[in-house]
Amino acid sequence: KRQFLREKEAQQKKQPAISTLQQTEEIQEEVQYEKSFSAIREQQMNINEMFRVMCNENKKVINMMVKQNLNLLSDSLSVVAKKMPKILDFENKRSFFKQELKKLRGDRHFHQLRVRVKRSDVFLGSFYQLANRSASEMKGKLHIEFVGEEGTDAGGLTREWFILLSREIFNPNYALFMPSANGVTFQPSPQSYVNPEHLRYFQFVGKIIGKALHDGYMLDAFFTRAMYKHMLGQQLSIHDMEDIDPEYYKNLKWILENDPTPLDLTFSYETDDFGQLKNVDLIPDGHKILVTNENKHEYVRSMCYAKMALDIKQQIEAFLTGFHELIPQNLISIFDSRELELLISGLPDIDIQDLKENTESVSYTHLTLPTIYSVQISVVAGSLKKKNVEIM
Predict the structure, then answer these.
(1) At what angle do helices 225-232 and 313-323 cross, to 10 degrees?
(2) Are the CB atoms for 339 and 223 separated by under 8 Å?
């Protein structure tokens, strides 16, 4: 019995040592795994950086190759289209986009899509005739007829219909969109729910934008930078707020560059719901959490997301449902937001006659005026280039 107890006691004394040894080995394995993982991650980052540098250095050559053979973007250069689309020229992207849409259509025959509407009722008339059409039906060739007018649609009436309809989309009577501070661009209105059919209308609008892109027609419709990014599936940034409200954007930038603690801001914001003021929390119990120098970046991110996405989440989702019926997400994402604007709306027309009639000149003759017009046109062109809009 004494021998048994001595052996048991000796075994118990050895057990902690064995356990400690096992723990040490496990810790060493974890450290080694972490080192290996870090090395792999660093190697991957190096590869990505090398790829980025290589693409930028060979940008011209890559674009020349793509211009000669667009199929490269869906074959050997597909990784460029997915990872580094910004190095591709807009013309190459647009040509590839059209080619891929044509491939998706294939050799299938689609029935003609006839639309008969009154000019005075182009939005609702078109909505009732097209809203319930399937994606396959929407791929058919449009044939437009305006009530009370004679003529055959050889393309001109369809072009006119798209322009008229795109303008009516922003009609305040439908309460779908709200203008940004500049009054030129639009984004969905958080109060659109006042219209009982607003989500169906948004899906219809998305379908029409998609149809215009699919068929190659321009629209008289300009959206905010955030709205284009929603279409592209791209991440929003604080700088997109500048397009919606420049003053509010300045305030957010000030918060990032200074200590906002004295302002007594909280993680909440106030909304005006048809005259009724409401406080909305950005995070749970946000109205109780003060914005400090430590958490100000989170506050600005949350505020931007709320203003540009969360407040209009249902509207955006409905719009994208209609839009992606004809335009696949993976195909449109090759563009950036400014290129998508150019693809949808084109370049603004410069009316030379209107420029002459509305230019006041002092101490200039008819010989020097043409130079003035040229300078004004150059200013417009320069402004477009600053916005990364290609002059074609």
Answers:
(1) 50
(2) no
Q: Residues 173-210: pLDDT tens digits?
A: 999 999 998 888 999 999 999 999 999 999 999 999 99
- Return contacts of 308-311, CB within 8 angstroms, 24+ apart: 308/187, 308/224, 308/226, 308/236, 308/240, 308/241, 308/244, 309/226, 309/230, 309/236, 311/190, 311/271
Token duo for residue 336: 């950036």
| DSSP-based helix, strand, coil % in the chain, nearest 5 | 65, 10, 30
Ramachandran region of residue 270, left (φ > 0), alpha (ψ -120 to 50) or beta? Answer: beta
Contact 175, 194 (CB under 8 A): yes
Contact 126, 117 (CB under 8 A): yes
Query: Pick from 130, 138, 139: which is nearest to 107 by CA?
Result: 139
Question: How far is the C-alpha of 182 from the C-alpha of 174, rounded, in Å?
Answer: 21
Cβ-in-10-Å burial (0-12, 13-18, 19+) of 323 comes to buried
What is the signed CA dihedral for 194, 197, 198, 199, rounded to 10 degrees? 130
> How many residues are present in the chain?
392
**Residue 205 half-sphere exposure toward CB, CA atoms < 13 A:** 26
pLDDT at 262 over 90: yes
d(CA 205, CA 202): 5
CB 137 within 8 A of CB 91: no
Residue located via tokens 């040509």: 95
Helices (H), 69-187: 78-83, 90-105, 122-130, 135-138, 156-168
